[in-house]
Design brief:
Number of strands: 35
CATH architecture of the largest domain: 3-Layer(aba) Sandwich
Largest sheet: 9 strands, mixed
Strand order of the largest sheet: 23-28-35-34-33-32-29-30-31
Helix content: 40-55%
Shape: elongated
Strand content: 5-15%
Number of domains: 5
CATH superfamily of the largest domain: NAD(P)-binding Rossmann-like Domain
Low-confidence stretches: 1-5, 369-375
CATH topology of the largest domain: Rossmann fold
Number of helices: 38
Length: 1232
């Protein structure tokens, strides 16, 4: 064949053409010669090369020196370098040095194994005709040779030179059974791009030709073989590619028809690219395809955060195959486990496997945390060694996974190495780097895909598609040129794998008859385009989304945005299930007290994430600022607009400062214009004392901070909330505030328990008046695992505080009991104090003047107290001594003048840390033992439950208990007891002194007095009133008894304690003590009538209500609980059918709140001398329909009241007599 020279476009240029004798290569060679180039042809067979050279010289009629035949194996870099040296400098095969290379045409290659993925040969023993090479050999021939030639030739190519890489359009299309051919060609495509970038600065052009199906006998043979491989009619493959071509051409007869391009079309393109006419082109793709529609890349870019709220990978077994990327692989595993998948992580690198094993033992990976730090319930992670280049071992590993876990559903495949090369250069790089890259990355990826395809073909996990996600490395900060080569190769691998598996799954001839077809759906996540810190989290979230849902993205390459934050508008790449919050409370404004830490802060966070605007109020300004910054960042991450304006703070807010609450509300309304949600969360722990030791001021402070503040904020905001509608008030109570109709004793915490019971009672009582515009509910968590439980800064945690208090109270109770026992033996307690306050246990034990009970106690304490603390040598510390003196004075055993200081102050520590810790463990274990879930909820757990609870628009007046299933060992229910005690119990009261306290319930008080005097025959009834007027009016009824000294009235002016002291001093210590209120319930509305709030109960009035009907009784119990022989009954306000709804509501509020005091004081009295029983009689029923309506019914109820008081006042068993009976007869609330 002769090609007549027509032009001189390549005159004087030296062209090195590999594969120059092939179908396309020969035409390129002849065209270059025709255009004037000197051509160097290479090959492995010297004889064939020589014969081909002679034929070219003869047929093209050119000078012999214009064709150089050079023996060279392009896969051997040493031979390549030697050949290039001969071209440039001369040698045996090149007598005259050519001095340079102007054109390099990388056309050589091979067909590669024509096999489906599952049959691609990895070992020589697996190669069967007509195939002649393994996968590794094909990769070397198709991309390795071109890379080697370019690296060797580039130094000798002057500016203006041209490198032409001949690829194939099939590297961008489906090509059944040709993965081993098209995947290396795809790598060559990306290599060309990388070379164009690197060599462009040297003036060297690099372009790529993409031939389509080229008309030849060979292509028809290839397509026939593909038809046979697919089991489809002959000619179908050829027709499918012709359909993709947009151009029809005239044949030799002039008929325009669809046909394949000719080899000369490729050669002409090569001539253009080799000539100066293409001087402006580099990095370009020239498709010789008749316009085949084949995209350059199948790609899309993520523009949104993956929504994980619906992702459920339960039951899925997922394999992560990594190289040495330990942190990335474990991060992927943690995310998938948090979506409830079982994960197997296989490492090619043994050292990485060992490192991962150590990493998984760290707590953060044992139970990986969600975005808020809450440990999630997760499936397991297993580690295996998995080297895809060891096909037998890899297959055994997959079978072992199946044997142990049942199946394998999906796979995540990472590159073989985190760093592909130490440099960005594709040219100036060690040969071993290239060899390792081609073997580990390209061959390794196909080999792993082969093993997975084989495994799934034999063991499909159902009919759903198996998912495979190839995940690239992150940005290598070196241009990612190697990563892009791997990206292109994996893209084509995924494309053809999809095609083959889908075709085979639909074709029964290509699958096991007894197995359903299960296709593989592969994608590739490209990370290296982004260098932000959110890269890995974003990737992990999308991997979980794609593997844990039915979503299938058609594009193969899934790119991370170059800038995640600006593209998707968030910093946090995936909120997981927390996304279920988004928009839940959109447009609402929430005012949250106690919002700097704990439950309040967590509610604020989650409400803000739910779309609400949030005002956080607290005392600590620094903590508030920190919390606000955290919430603003998360709100911004969640894509809410103008995050800064959605969260505001109000520092220095003390809820016990009622005027300060007014300022808080005004500030909130100025900032947000309204309040939809009022979250009464702030509060204090309280005095942490027994009732008999608790200062009245401390009690009032706790109720003011925890209860009065709730009403103050509600009263201030209710007008606006009622007018707007859709509002919500939530009181954060406590499980220890009780449940509906149930009081829970909380020893040493009566003030706290009462305040929390009041929060709950407020909800139950006010719901009917605030609705329908305002919902009002409460949450009642138990102990919550968090900062406040554990302690912070210099403040110990709750359990440690309780432990110390328990130890101090135990010592205090023992000393107090010993003194009371000494008193029984005739000792005068005031006379014992000088010797007692010497405070030395040994001295006290050895003092014969000391009563026996005190000496026995001193001896016992020395023998049983832990060594190391001063409590083994000293009787009391200052705190215990102060409380002891207060008890003795309040109980009437000493006077103020008898008080004294300790003679010897004990050194610290009084109790050892070991003692305190042992006691704290008991407290904690006791709580955990009462939790059905065996763990305390976290602050976040409670907040999350609360935020969802707030979304329930169908509940009001209720209390929700996110307490971990807490069920206290002792609860006291409201009950009804009919009848009265037996005669024997009543007779035991004869001759006693009865204290009646109150003046409002005159009818009840008079009937009680008459009963005690006339029926029980007590020695005296002492009535303590508040006012002189009431005393004078009541005195007229019992003039005769008063004259006889059997009835005495003491007006106290509100000084209950002083009145009791006077009564004890003048009339004797009491037996029964019946406490009734001094004042009636306020006759005020609880909600506006026609928008008029002027008659609604004000905050000062509510505070006075609490003072008169709650604190009043506390003061009585605090005092009378110290008096030997006393028996306390607390009476709540009465109602009848004539009472208003508001009075009925307030009465129920009082009875519910007060029962927390009654139950707690009753429980405390069991373990504390003098064991004074405390019970409660309620004059209000839960249902208004049950209230008395006629005078006769009222008279009957009045008599039941008297009987109930007698039941609670008659002498009751002490714990020493019967612990069982002592417990069940204390802390009760009897409704009459």
């Amino acid at each position: 064949m002769s090609t007549t020279r027509r032009h001189d476009r390549l005159e004087g240029k030296v062209a090195l053409i590999t594969g120059g004798a092939g179908n396309i290569g020969e035409v390129i060679t002849r065209r270059f010669l025709a255009e004037g180039a000197t051509v160097v042809i290479t090959g492995r067979n010297v004889e064939k090369l020589a014969a081909y050279r002679r034929r070219l010289i003869d047929e093209e009629r050119i000078a012999p020196d214009r064709v150089v035949a050079l023996r060279m194996d392009g896969s051997d870099m040493a031979q390549v370098r030697a050949a290039i040296a001969q071209i440039v400098h001369g040698g045996a095969d090149v007598p005259t040095p050519l001095k340079r290379i102007d054109i390099l045409v990388n056309n050589a290659g091979s067909a590669g194994p024509r096999r489906r993925l599952v049959d691609i040969p990895l070992e020589p023993s697996e190669v069967h005709p007509p195939d002649t090479e393994t996968l590794a050999q094909a990769v070397g021939n198709l991309v390795g040779v071109a890379w080697n030639l370019t690296r060797a030739a580039a130094p000798y190519m002057p500016p203006g030179s041209s490198i032409i890489n001949v690829s194939t359009i099939f590297s961008r299309t489906d090509y059944y059974g040709r993965i081993a051919y098209v995947v290396p060609k795809a790598a060559l495509n990306a290599l060309s791009q990388g070379l164009a970038r690197e060599l462009g600065v040297r003036g060297i052009r690099v372009n790529t030709i993409y031939p389509g199906p080229i008309e030849s006998e060979r292509i028809h043979t290839v397509f026939q073989a593909m038809d046979a491989l697919k089991g489809q009619p002959e000619g179908e493959t050829a027709r499918s590619f012709l359909r993709l071509m947009r151009l029809s051409r005239a044949d030799t007869q002039g008929e325009v028809t669809k046909r394949f391009p000719l080899p000369v079309d490729v050669a002409n393109t090569a001539v253009f690219l080799a000539s100066e006419e293409s001087a402006a082109f580099t990095g370009h793709a020239f498709e010789v395809t008749h316009g085949m529609e084949a995209p350059v890349e199948s790609r899309t870019t993520f523009v949104s955060r993956p929504g994980l709220r619906s992702v459920d990978a339960t039951g899925n077994v997922i394999l992560i195959c990594a190289g040495d990327q330990v942190d990335d692989a474990i991060a992927l595993s943690d995310t998938l486990r948090s979506c409830r998948a079982t994960v197997v992580v296989g490492f090619r690198d043994v050292q990485a496997l060992e490192k991962a094993s150590a990493l998984l033992r760290e707590p953060r990976h044992v139970a990986p945390a969600d975005m808020y730090g809450r440990p999630t319930m997760v499936a397991e992670t297993r580690l295996v060694h998995l080297d895809p280049l060891d096909s037998r071992a890899a297959a055994q590993t997959l079978e072992r996974i199946r044997a142990e876990l049942g199946t394998l559903h999906h796979a995540v495949i990472l590159p073989a190495s985190l760093r592909h090369a130490p440099t960005e250069s594709l040219i100036d790089v060690d040969d071993r780097i290239i060899d390792r890259f081609l073997e580990q990355e390209l061959v390794g990826a196909i080999a792993l895909a082969r093993e997975l395809a084989r495994f799934w073909e034999e063991h499909p996990a159902g009919s759903r598609a198996h998912r495979v996600l190839f995940v690239s490395n992150p940005d290598d900060q070196q241009g990612n040129r190697y990563a892009d080569i791997l990206r292109a190769a994996v893209e084509q691998l995924a494309r053809v794998w999809r095609h083959e598996s889908e075709y085979d799954a639909a074709n029964p001839a290509h699958r096991h008859e007894d197995q359903p077809g299960a296709a593989v759906w592969a994608n590739q996540l490209i990370r290296y385009v982004n260098s932000e810190s959110a890269n890995l989290d974003f990737t992990c979230a999308w991997v979980a989304k794609l593997l844990g849902s039915d979503r299938r993205i058609a594009e193969i390459n899934l790119y991370l945005p170059e800038q995640i934050v600006s593209t998707i508008g968030v910093h946090n790449p995936g909120f997981g299930w927390a996304e279920s919050l988004f928009g839940l409370h959109m447009g609402k404004v929430a005012l949250i007290t106690g919002g700097s830490a704990g439950i309040g802060a967590q509610i604020g966070r989650l409400l803000a994430l739910s779309g609400a605007h949030v005002m956080l109020a607290a005392r600590n300004a620094e903590q508030l600022e920190q919390m606000r910054a955290l919430i603003v960042r998360e709100v911004r991450d969640a894509s809410y607009p103008d995050a800064e304006s959605r969260v505001a703070i109000f520092p220095n807010s003390d809820v016990s400062d009622i005027d300060g609450l007014e300022r808080l509300v005004n500030h909130t309304l100025r900032v947000f214009g309204k309040v939809d949600y009022l979250i009464n969360n702030a509060g204090i722990a309280g005095a942490e004392e027994m009732v008999i030791d608790m200062p009245v001021d401390a009690w009032r402070h706790t109720l003011r901070a925890n209860l009065i503040s709730n009403y103050a904020l509600l009263r201030r905001l209710a007008p606006q909330m009622k007018a707007a509608g859709g509002a919500y008030v939530l009181n954060v109570s406590s499980y220890f505030g009780g449940e509906k109709y149930v009081a829970i004793p909380y020893p040493n915490r009566a003030d706290y328990a009462v305040s929390k019971a009041g929060q709950r009672a407020m909800v139950e009582s006010l719901a009917r008046f605030l609705g329908p515009e305002i919902q009002i509910n409460a949450i009642a968590p138990g102990p919550v695992e968090g900062e406040r439980l554990k302690g912070a800064a210099n403040r110990p945690g709750l359990f440690m505080r309780r432990a110390r208090l328990i130890l101090e109270n135990k010592r205090l109770n023992e000393v107090f009991a010993a003194l009371l026992a000494a008193r029984h033996e005739g000792a005068v307690i005031a006379a014992l104090l000088p010797d007692l306050f010497v405070n030395d246990l040994q001295t006290i034990a050895d003092n014969p003047a000391m009563p026996a009970p005190v000496r026995r106690l001193a001896t016992m304490l020395r023998e049983t107290t832990d060594a190391g603390g001063s409590a083994q040598s000293y009787l009391m510390n200052a705190t215990i001594a102060r409380k002891l003196l207060n008890r003795l004075e309040n109980g009437g055993y000493i006077t103020a003048g008898d008080r004294r200081a300790l003679t010897n102050e004990p050194p610290d520590p009084f109790f050892t840390e070991a003692q305190i810790e042992r006691e704290a463990i008991k407290v904690r274990d006791g709580i955990l033992g009462m939790l059905h879930l065996q763990r305390m909820p976290t602050e976040f757990d409670v907040a999350l439950a609360t935020v969802f609870y707030l979304a329930d628009r169908n509940v009001t007046g209720e209390t929700f208990h996110p307490s971990g299933g807490l069920r206290f060992e002792r609860t006291v229910t409201e009950g009804e007891l009919f009848g009265k005690p037996g005669r024997q119990r009543l007779e035991r009261m004869a001759g006693s002194v009865v204290y009646l306290i109150g003046e409002h319930l005159r009818q009840h008080l008079l009937l009680l007095a008459r009963t005690f005097l006339d029926e029980i025959h007590v020695a005296r009834v002492v009535l303590l009133t508040e006012t002189e007027q009431a005393a004078a009016e009541l005195a007229t009824v019992f003039a005769d008894e008063e004259a006889a000294g059997r009835f005495v009235i003491i007006p106290t002016g509100g000084d209950i304690e002083g009145g009791i002291d006077r009564a004890m001093a003048e009339y004797g210590r009491p037996g029964p003590v019946i406490s009734t209120p001094f004042r009636p319930l306020p006759s005020r509305a609880l909600s506006a009538q026609n928008g008029d709030w002027s008659n609604v109960l004000t905050t000062p009035e509510f505070e006075e209500l609490v003072e008169q009907h709650i604190t009043h009784h506390f003061r009585v119990v605090r005092k009378a609980g110290l008096i030997e022989g006393a028996n306390v009954t607390l009476v709540t306000p009465p109602t009848s059918a004539r009472s208003t709804a508001e009075e009925f509501a307030l009465a129920n509020f009082i009875k519910t709140t007060l029962h927390a005091l009654t139950a707690t004081a009753g429980a405390e009295s069991e373990r504390t001398m003098p064991h004074v029983p405390v019970n409660q009689v309620d004059l209000t029923r839960r249902a208004r329909s049950e209230e008395p309506r006629t005078p006769a019914e009222e008279e009957e109820e009045l008599q039941r009241f008297v009987n109930a008081v007698l039941l609670t006042s008659a002498p009751l068993p002490t714990p020493l007599e019967s612990r069982y009976r002592a417990r069940i007869y204390r802390g009760n609330a009897i409704t009459v």
